[in-house]
Amino acid sequence: MVFVLVNPTLGVAADAPVSQKSVPEQIVDAFNGVFGVHPGARATHAKGVVLEGKFMPTGSATVVSKAAHLQKKKTPVPTTIRFSASTGLPAIPDTDPGASPRGMAVKFHLPDGSKTDIVVNSFNGFPVATAAEVRDLFLAIAATKPEDPKPTALDQFLSSHPSAKAFVEAPKPAPVSYATLTYFGVNAFKFTNAKGAATFGRYQLQPVAGEHFLTKEQLSTMGPDYLTTEIRERVRRGPVRFKLLLQVAAQDDRIDDPSIAWPDTRKKIVLGTLDITKVVPDSQTAEKKLLFMPGTLVSGIEPADPMIAARSAAYTVSASRRAKAQ
Q1: pLDDT for 12-69, tens place per residue?
Q2: CA-CA distance, 305 to 130, in Å (whole number)?
Q3: pLDDT for the residue 17
């Protein structure tokens, strides 16, 4: 549930009165109000590419959590990965400023048939603290027209929400590749190990290839699907590797407010290595069956931020609607 501001394409929301809808339903309606309704597509991060890989945990991961995929083992955990552009526009060009921040989602397939997900994005922080504020921000975007007098509905929202203003104004340069971005988990989780000791933290996925961005001149020469093409070609040449880190909360860090990024000086624990090794031939078909939710967890990991439940509920609403349209 990450976004940037684009020119609104007003869509048709679901039919039930707003007063009868849950906040997650209202959030999806608000997304549709900005990006339009695109049958069969996700309400946000609609454009993406699916790949496959494997995850190998470190010994440090076992110290942090008893979660099955974080236990040291001889064989890696199979994974499904989806990279995506921001917004709910399925055909947004990769060169469009509105396509950033980029998204990354990882699904771990465990031996007993269970699954667990990580959902992250390429901006360290979130514009607002609560699910209701996500809804209100998108309603403000949808209500703002180019010809509106100042201050617009969006101006008023941003003036009363400094974190949203900072998010909107922060530079978001276009990457060379999906493989040359660091991805941040904006929500905190509680990790419990076999001895019952708890650690609170947020995920980060750091590219072993390093961070690399395009200049404006380079970006002007790129095609509308350059990131999809590039990541497929890169994976065919060899594994694309990320380090999965846990940024550990200090005693005074807010674990219930995703709009506050923790200092980079916080301790980081390497949980393991993710190798992306395979291109999925028909990505559009594959992603129709996929649902990545930050609240899909296993024993040893629990939500610490109430936003996690709201995000998962909104994703479920979106998935239900796109399934009906397929």
Answers
A1: 344 555 668 999 999 999 999 999 999 999 999 999 999 999 999 999 999 999 999 9
A2: 10
A3: 57
Tokens 């995703």, located at residue: 258
By the 8 A CB rule, do 201 and 191 touch?
A: yes
Q: How far apart are CA 91 and CA 10, in angstroms?
A: 16
Tell how strand 240-248 and strand 268-279 pair up. antiparallel
pLDDT tens for 149-188 read 999 999 999 999 999 999 999 999 999 999 999 999 999 9
Q: What is the pLDDT of residues 262-308, one digit of tens each?
A: 999 999 999 999 999 999 999 999 999 999 999 999 999 999 999 99
281-286: which pairs have CB atoms within 8 A and are 24 or more residues apart? 283/48, 283/49, 283/50, 283/228, 286/50
pTM above 0.85, yes or no: yes
Q: What is the 3-state secondary structure (H, E, C) of 138-193?
A: HHHHHHCCCCCCCCCHHHHHHHHCHHHHHHHHCCCCCECCHHHCCEECCCCEEEEC
Task: Give the DSSP H or E segment for 273.
Answer: strand 268-279
Q: How far is CA 307 from the centre of its chain?
A: 13
Whether 246 and 300 have beta carbons less than 8 Å apart is answered as no
- Tokens 């994974």, located at residue: 79
Name the one residue in this structure whose structure tokens are 């978001």: 172
Residue 101, token pair as written in the block: 């921040």
Which residues carry out catalysis? 45
What are φ and ψ of residue 196, in 5° steps?
Answer: 90, 0
Q: Which fold has domain 18-325?
A: Catalase HpII,  Chain A, domain 1 (2.40.180)
Residue 228 φ then ψ, to 5°: -65, -45
Domain extents in the chain: 18-325
Task: Check if the beta carbon of residue 164 is closer than 8 Å to that of residue 158.
Answer: yes
